[in-house]
UniProtKB/TrEMBL annotation:
<keyword id="KW-0813">Transport</keyword>
<comment type="function">
    <text>The electron transfer flavoprotein serves as a specific electron acceptor for several dehydrogenases, including five acyl-CoA dehydrogenases, glutaryl-CoA and sarcosine dehydrogenase. It transfers the electrons to the main mitochondrial respiratory chain via ETF-ubiquinone oxidoreductase (ETF dehydrogenase).</text>
</comment>
<dbReference type="InterPro" id="IPR000049">
    <property type="entry name" value="ET-Flavoprotein_bsu_CS"/>
</dbReference>
<keyword id="KW-0496">Mitochondrion</keyword>
<dbReference type="GO" id="GO:0009063">
    <property type="term" value="P:amino acid catabolic process"/>
</dbReference>
<keyword id="KW-0249">Electron transport</keyword>
<dbReference type="GO" id="GO:0033539">
    <property type="term" value="P:fatty acid beta-oxidation using acyl-CoA dehydrogenase"/>
</dbReference>
<protein>
    <recommendedName>
        <fullName>Probable electron transfer flavoprotein subunit beta</fullName>
    </recommendedName>
</protein>
<feature type="domain" description="Electron transfer flavoprotein alpha/beta-subunit N-terminal">
    <location>
        <begin position="25"/>
        <end position="222"/>
    </location>
</feature>
<dbReference type="InterPro" id="IPR014729">
    <property type="entry name" value="Rossmann-like_a/b/a_fold"/>
</dbReference>
<dbReference type="Pfam" id="PF01012">
    <property type="entry name" value="ETF"/>
</dbReference>
<dbReference type="InterPro" id="IPR012255">
    <property type="entry name" value="ETF_b"/>
</dbReference>
<dbReference type="GO" id="GO:0009055">
    <property type="term" value="F:electron transfer activity"/>
</dbReference>
<comment type="subunit">
    <text>Heterodimer of an alpha and a beta subunit.</text>
</comment>
<dbReference type="InterPro" id="IPR014730">
    <property type="entry name" value="ETF_a/b_N"/>
</dbReference>
<comment type="similarity">
    <text>Belongs to the ETF beta-subunit/FixA family.</text>
</comment>
<dbReference type="GO" id="GO:0005759">
    <property type="term" value="C:mitochondrial matrix"/>
</dbReference>
Length: 263
C-alpha cells in the first residue's frame, strides 16, 4: 500500500564548495582567503540517499542547495550524481566575499519557505572545512524554530510517525535524541561512508533540474559582518641539523640566542 501524500518526506541537503581536503591549501593572490567538496556535506547527501533506499517510496524528493559563486554548480552536480533529484543554486559573484553562517542560514530559511510542498528534514554537514564554524545548522534551527540534532553518528527516521532517532557523539560516550519532524540534522564523520558517483549517474546528473536564484530573489543580505584583512600561509619549516654531543648542542643553542634555564 502506498503511503498517503501527507506522509511522504521531502529532504533538503545544503552543500558548500570548499577546499579539497586531499590537496595542499593555497592562499589566494589577494590574500583574502584560500583556493577552494566538503566531506561532511558528502556524508549529508549520502545519508539522504540512504534514507530513501531504506524508506523506499516514503521519501518523495531529495533537493540539494548551495550558496556560492558560479563554480559551485559543480558541487551540486556531484550531489545530483550521488542520487539527489534536483538542486538550487543561490549564486553570488566570484568577487563577493564568502557569506558567513548567519547569512547562509537566512538564505536557507528563505529557500525552505519557498518550497510549495514543504521540507520535513534538513541534513547538512556539521561544519565546513574551510572556516570550521559549525554554526549554520544551529542558526537555521533557531531561525525556523525547529528541533535540531547535531553531530549525528546514526539517524533512524520513522516517516509514518514523523519522528527521528538520532545518535550523537558526546564527551561521555553516545547520546540518543528522539525528535519530531521537521528537523535539522548535522552530520559527523562516522555517520556513513559516501559513495562514489558512477559514470552513468554523472551523465544523468547533467539532465537534472537546477534552479538559479540570487540573494535578492530570497530577500536576504549575504554581506559579511566581519572583514577579512589578510590570509597568509604559516612560515615554511626549515631543515634541522645533527650534533655529535651535548657540548655541541649547547654551543648551537648559544649561537641561536637561547640560554639555559635552571629548574
Amino acid at each position: 500500500m502506498r503511503p498517503s501524500a501527507a506522509r511522504l518526506l521531502n529532504i533538503l541537503v545544503p552543500v558548500k564548495r570548499t577546499i579539497d581536503y586531499a590537496v595542499k591549501i593555497r592562499v589566494n593572490p589577494d590574500q583574502k582567503g584560500v583556493d577552494l567538496n566538503n566531506p561532511f556535506d558528502e556524508i549529508a547527501v549520502e545519508e539522504a540517499v540512504r534514507l530513501r533506499e531504506k524508506l523506499k517510496d516514503q521519501v518523495k524528493s531529495i533537493k540539494v542547495v548551495t550558496i556560492g559563486p558560479p563554480k559551485s554548480i559543480d558541487t551540486l552536480r556531484t550531489a545530483l550524481a550521488m542520487g539527489a533529484d534536483s538542486g538550487v543554486h543561490v549564486e553570488i559573484p566570484d568577487s563577493a566575499p564568502s557569506p558567513e553562517p548567519l547569512g547562509i542560514a537566512k538564505a536557507l530559511r528563505a529557500v525552505i519557505e519557498r518550497q510549495k510542498e514543504g521540507v520535513d528534514l534538513v541534513i547538512l554537514g556539521k561544519q565546513a572545512i574551510d572556516d570550521d564554524s559549525s554554526q549554520t545548522g544551529q542558526m537555521l534551527a533557531g531561525l525556523l524554530d525547529w528541533p535540531q540534532a547535531t553531530f549525528a553518528s546514526k539517524l533512524v527516521v520513522d516517516a509514518a510517525k514523523k519522528e527521528a532517532n538520532v545518535t550523537r557523539e558526546i564527551d561521555g560516550g553516545l547520546e540518543e535524541l528522539k525528535c519530531r519532524l521537521p528537523l535539522i540534522v548535522t552530520t559527523d564523520l562516522r555517520l556513513n561512508e559516501p559513495r562514489y558517483a558512477s559514470l552513468p549517474n554523472i551523465m544523468k546528473a547533467k539532465k537534472k533540474p537546477i534552479e538559479k536564484l540570487s540573494a535578492s530573489d530570497l530577500g536576504v543580505d549575504l554581506t559579511p559582518r566581519v572583514e577579512t584583512l589578510k590570509v597568509t600561509e604559516p612560515p615554511k619549516r626549515v631543515g634541522g641539523g645533527k650534533v655529535e654531543n651535548v657540548d655541541e648542542l649547547i654551543a648551537k643553542l648559544k649561537e641561536a640566542g637561547i640560554t639555559a634555564v635552571k629548574a
